[in-house]
Amino acid sequence: xxxxxxxxxxxxxxxxxxxxxxxxxxxxxxxxxxxxxxxxxxxxxxxxxxxxxxxxxxxxxxxxxxxxxxxxxxxxxxxxxxxxxxxxxxxxxxxxxxxxxxxxxxxxxxxxxxxxxxxxxxxxxxxxxxxxxxxxxxxxxxxxxxxxxxxxxxxxxxxxxxxxxxxxxxxxxxxxxxx
Length: 179
Ligand SMILES: Nc1ncnc2c1ncn2[C@@H]1O[C@H](COP(=O)(O)OP(=O)(O)OP(=O)(O)O)[C@@H](O)[C@H]1O
Prior knowledge:
Elements: E1 13-17, H1 24-35, E2 38-41, H2 42-48, E3 52-56, E4 61-64, H3 66-79, E5 82-85, E6 99-104, H4 107-115, H5 121-132, H6 135-143, E7 149-153, H7 157-178
Parallel strand pairs: 1-5, 1-6, 2-5, 6-7
Antiparallel strand pairs: 3-4
Helix pairs in contact: 1-7, 4-5
């Protein structure tokens, strides 16, 4: 059998994950503007391309079809220069990512952000508890090497700017290491 070797990417792929409301999309959008990398908001992609596997009546949201999402993104991920934004991280191929950012938010701040979305009480409480117990961080630690995981606080606007600068700095180093 003949294997086609995939050339090493020259620009990195970054996963931004964290509990809903921790600011993944805000950071991903700014990072995409600063770098020209492609922002993939997985929930949006699933809806737009019909990569869903039903409706979750308890949480009132679509259930994404993880296999279809991975198939949809595979070719683009091989090229590098992608920012993937999703509140889960254990179903993506590990080889896709060079950096995994886990955003964390103080529970009082997160409560305020999620209350504005009119989530029902159970969805609100479950998300706050998930953040308190660091469920997504644990999921990231179970799925990726710890050297590529970056846990970042995102409570106020200064945090967003600092996190953006940190990631831009990381990209510069990563790219110069590839030369
Ligand atoms: N550093 C910050 N300071 C203040 N507000 C912020 C900050 N980051 C994000 N926000 C605000 O918090 C809310 C949630 O942000 P955002 O939609 O980016 O979160 P998310 O993690 O992508 O959520 P979801 O997983 O549900 O898509 C938005 O109203 C956004 O403007």
